[in-house]
Amino acid sequence: DLYFIEYNDFFAREELYSSYGESFHDNSLRFAFFCKSVLEATRILKFRPDVIHCHDWQTALIPYYLKTSEKQNPFFKQTGTVLTIHNGAYQQQTP
Q1: How many Cβ atoms from other residues are within 10 Å of residue 35's Cβ?
Q2: 3-class DSSP state of 65
Q3: Given a cut of 80, is residue 88 above it in pLDDT?
Q4: What is the CA radius of gyration of the chain?
Q5: In this model, does residue 92 exceed pLDDT 80?
Q6: What is the phi/psi pair of residue 54, to 5°?
Q7: How far apart are CA 44 and CA 47, in angstroms?
Q8: 46 vs 16, 18, 40, 75, CA distance in Å?
Q9: Which pairing describes strands 22-23 and 51-55: parallel, antiparallel, or unpaired?
Q10: What is the mean pLDDT of the chain?
């Protein structure tokens, strides 16, 4: 099964990360929103993942959220994470 997160203000764009070689100015907000949405979707679907595999900086906030804002949430008590970084040259810099 596949599920998609739809929020046109963040994701209805011609490219995923950038336009004409320039990163979108709101990429940090877009992918923070995505990470929170993934966690919320698992709760809505009543799908308790054993492991969430995160890939690159775009999903790297998921392990952080599980250790901080979701730390006391029993829904995620048994959920682990793995973060794969396949190209360290591409990093998001954000204030």
Answers
A1: 22
A2: helix
A3: no
A4: 14
A5: no
A6: -100, 145
A7: 8
A8: 28, 34, 10, 9
A9: unpaired
A10: 93
